[in-house]
Amino acid sequence: MKTLVVFCSNHGTTEKAVKHLVNQLPGEIKSIDLKREKIKVDINGFDFVLVGGSIHAGQIQGKLRSFMKNNIDILLHKKLGLFLCCMREGETAQKQFEQAFPKELRKKAIVHGLFGGEFLVTKMNFFEKAIVKKVSGVVTDTLALNTKAIKEFVNQLENHMDVVQ
Fold it and tell me: Domains in the chain, ordered, with CATH?
């Protein structure tokens, strides 16, 4: 089994989530942070493709949106998983998830994940700090990465891998 994990991480939270994910997944795994890497990869060479990012000012990263738009035809024919790091919970988190990923991909995905998040105020620029303070009232680093949700995502994905093997 070959799995590709494509993600964007602004301040490192999604990267932490991906490390948890990769450490638990079986088979050969390649991960690419679109924020830091300019690698072109042939998605066709993978059995599973996992796509994830985080919410900043109400939006998922532009590089991730572009990746999904430019590769939607291939992604629709892959075993697909989608995940999002965000500080909201419940219905609000679900709405952010729905806004982050195109409807066609959400319907096609065999697994969805909401992994919690972090406000890493010490890594934010002035503008980001102001938004976080205004929207959430947070002024110090706040850590809420949900490793149980990541494990559940992996468990669901492994159920589909067993079917493929």
Answer: 2-117+148-164 (3.40.50.360)
Virtual CA dihedral for 78, 113, 37, 122, nearest 10 degrees? 170
**DSSP H helical ranges for 50-102:** 62-75, 90-100
CA neighbor of 51 nearest in space, from 1, 95, 115: 115
Q: How far apart are CA 147 and CA 21, in angstroms?
A: 9
**CA 70 – CA 74 distance, rounded (Å):** 9
Q: What is the DSSP string of 95-153?
A: HHHHHHS-HHHHHH-SEEEE-EEEE-GGG--HHHHHHHHHHH---S-EEEE-HHHHHHH
**CA-closest candidate to residue 34, choices 73, 57, 66, 79:** 66
Q: What is the pLDDT of residues 85-141, one digit of tens each?
A: 988 788 988 999 999 999 999 999 999 999 987 676 678 777 777 776 777 776 777
